[in-house]
Design goal:
It is a single chain. The chain has about 120 residues and is mainly alpha-helical. It has one domain: Globin-like (Orthogonal Bundle), CATH 1.10.490.10. It is about 70% helix and about 0% strand. The chain has 7 helices and no strands. It is globular. Its cofactor is heme.
Length: about 120
Amino acid sequence: MSESLFVRLGSKKGIIKIVDDVVEAHMNNPIISARFTPYLEQPENLAMVKKHTVDFFSMGSGGPQAYTGRDMETTHKGMNISAAEYMETMDDIFKVLDKHEKDDQTKKDVLEILWSLKGMIIGK
């Protein structure tokens, strides 16, 4: 593939749409929703989480955005996220990628990123 993952995800506008849909999916997922629904009462914090997520995936997928948020371990410290919860987040992400009609190679590339992050998130 000659296009970067960033371009295949739809560049910044596409990643924003994907992040919005993923957050909505997480809020509707009974296994992990309790971690996300409190943000409904904190719109400023929700907007910041979404911005950092967009910037993180934009930079990590080859885009020009700089990520200025905290590292993954610091961000998830004290959350004690289980492997099952992490798998649920991944499932939601792949359902959204399917909704956005992303091809298999794009999904594989996203999987590689998500899998590389699991040790920095699970059980912290």
